[in-house]
Amino acid sequence: MDHLEAPPKIAPYGSWESPINPTLLTASTPCYSYPTHDGDNLYWLESRPWENGRAVVVQRNSEGQVNDVLPAPLSARSKVHEYGGAPYIVVDNILYFCLYDDQRIYQLELGINNPRPKPITRENSYRFADFCYDKYRHRLICVAENHINVNEPKNSIVAIPLDRSKSIITLCSGDDFYAYPQLDKTGNQLSWVSWNHPDMPWDNTVLWLADLNRRGEIIEPMAIAGNGNEAIFQPQWSPDNQLYFVSDQDNWWNLYRWDPEQGIEPIQPMAAEFATPLWSLGMSTYSFAENGALVCCYTQDGTWQLAIKAPNTNMQQIETGYTQISNLYCHGDQVWFVGATTTTNAELVEYNINNGQLLPVAQGTPLPFDQQYLSKPTPISFDTTSNVPTHSTGQARAHAFYYQPSNPAYVGPTDDLPPLIVICHGGPTGSTSTGLNLKVQYWTTRGFAVLDVNYRGSTGYGRHYREQLHGQWGIADVADVVAGTRYLIEQQCVNPEKVAIRGSSAGGYTVLAALCFYDLFKAGACLYGIGDLETLAQDTHKFESRYLDKLIGPYPEQQAIYQERSPIHHTDKLRCPVIFFQGLDDKVVPPEQAIAMTQALRDKHLPVAYLSFAGEGHGFSKAETIKQALEAELYFYSKVFDFTPNETLPDIQIDNLHGDQS
């Protein structure tokens, strides 16, 4: 007789027993990035929450053995721009890396017993990232950020000789920011990207090319791309020594080649994005195989694809099953990238160009539950406010991914609809992902619906879509999360009385603005978010110090608009409970922002909770922090939406939970 599974239980939404707990989120999968090759060995970086966010350089040798080459407790992580970037390079079996603790560059000889890191830069206030190796002069070339006795750090491209002199030689300076220093195949030319305030790297950058003299100094740099309204991404030299790059000069971030005779030539124009916003240095979306084939990844409608373009042929899509692809790198006939699907965590993947074989190189612990528990993202588009320029005629549209509650053991009551959590991604120049996100599934397996919004200003939909947030931050993004929420309510997908909104960083600002300026949401969760735009304009790091010039307007000239859009000045309009999470070491959005908003809600006698975390910066990296924050948020929603979680949660202090809310 066939075994019949028990029918699902009827239980209130939010109270379903879930196989996904915070420990699983932090212990199952590290974050993989920056694969590279040296000799017969493959290397990559793993960020591990269960080791307090330590970033470890890992090696797979020619025999297929995998081991850490950066000994504990050392962490390879750069603080350039505060967000960092490629923090290591391996040359001739020597690892050069930026140590997180002091930001000095160290060398570590591999293949010997008990290797000891040796510093190759002095103790000072420099930070480094985005390395390339100059084999002709035996030196590293990289981006440097000088914090020595200056009001604003000075960025430059520097050379670091590997002769134990610990010297730093400035090759190029004068612009506010630099990225992607790349030597050509002869060692005679150097290319790089730079930009200046108030632009961000996705607004306007310049691609430079310069000859090097015998001493390795730059001679007469020439700007070869960047028209004042163009963002350049990832210049790279091909095996036949041609300079390629990505540009959005025609709305979409597409691939181009620069020819000294013909100028700039498009590779294969597509309505697709071959780049992502350069929050971290050294990001890569394409590379070259030994035979000259260009291997790349691109996104269309929020989903990523892998493709290959052999010489003199059209680009061919490669079916991989992965919907999120990043960190692409080639060596010989092998390709490596970080890939995720809607039902599998991100993993480091190897693709063989010759035989088409696709194999995982590194992956987290397999999920200890059936895929029936996983909610797959459904892409949706919806009408939104049209008071923002759309670069086209007709109704303005916004995009999102919708996740239904999913748990084979439960169904909700027939007379109820699920609560909704609306997610506002950070950035705001960024995007949400279709790759498996256990933080989303944490909610859907408990009976919540989730709407993950790519509001106007998000990447992946062309430059025009990004620019619709110019001058409109706090208006267009908020209108889009509201429009998406109303769309689901009108479709009778969710309970309109149980709608929460959550977001981190810039997404946290969208949360607070939505709560102040719209009477739609019944609860909010703000993770290291922004309540006072003036404070952010006056007290943040160099990389983002002029970011708001484009998003809102120059400060202090537009001070009135900053005040008008700052939630801290509109707490009188707040009508619902809010929980705040804040890292005490945050240099991007200092803790004073969350503290001020919390106090404003306390003064108004609204339910409010505030959780701070020592040793955490802008974004949480420690397993214990992630666990505490998720459990506290679930506890908060259970009190606001009146359901009993199917698990024991630590109590948190919620001020005014049952007090006067007038």
Description:
The protein has about 650 residues and is α+β, with helices and mostly antiparallel strands. The protein folds into three domains: about 40-175, 6 Propeller (Neuraminidase), CATH 2.120.10.30; about 175-285, Lipocalin (Beta Barrel); about 375-640, Rossmann fold (3-Layer(aba) Sandwich). The chain contains ten helices and 38 strands. The strands form nine sheets. The protein has an eight-stranded mixed sheet with strand order 30-31-34-33-35-36-37-38, sandwiched between helices. Helix 4 crosses helix 5 (about 505-515). The longest helix is centred in the last third of the chain and has 19 residues, at about 625-640. It is globular, with a radius of gyration of 25 Å. The chain starts with 8 loop residues before the first strand and ends in a 21-residue tail after the last helix. About 50% of the residues are buried.
Briefly note the CATH topology name of the largest domain.
Rossmann fold
Tell how many strands the DSSP assignment holds. Answer: 38
- Give the CA-based shape: globular
Task: Give the DSSP E fraction (strand runs of 2 or more residues).
Answer: 25-35%
Distance between the termini: 62 Å
Question: How is this fold's topology laid out?
Answer:
Elements: E1 9-10, H1 22-27, E2 31-38, E3 41-48, E4 54-60, E5 66-68, E6 88-91, E7 94-98, E8 105-109, E9 118-119, E10 126-134, E11 139-146, E12 154-161, E13 169-173, E14 177-183, E15 189-195, E16 206-212, E17 218-225, E18 232-237, E19 243-250, E20 252-259, E21 263-266, E22 286-288, E23 294-300, E24 303-309, E25 316-318, E26 324-331, E27 334-340, E28 347-352, E29 358-362, E30 378-383, E31 397-403, E32 410-411, E33 420-424, H2 438-444, E34 449-454, H3 463-467, H4 476-490, E35 499-504, H5 506-517, E36 523-527, H6 533-538, H7 547-551, H8 559-565, E37 578-583, H9 592-603, E38 608-613, H10 623-641
Parallel strand pairs: 1-32, 33-34, 33-35, 35-36, 36-37, 37-38
Antiparallel strand pairs: 2-3, 3-4, 4-5, 6-7, 7-8, 8-9, 10-11, 11-12, 12-13, 14-15, 15-16, 16-17, 18-19, 19-20, 20-21, 22-23, 23-24, 24-25, 26-27, 27-28, 28-29, 30-31, 31-34
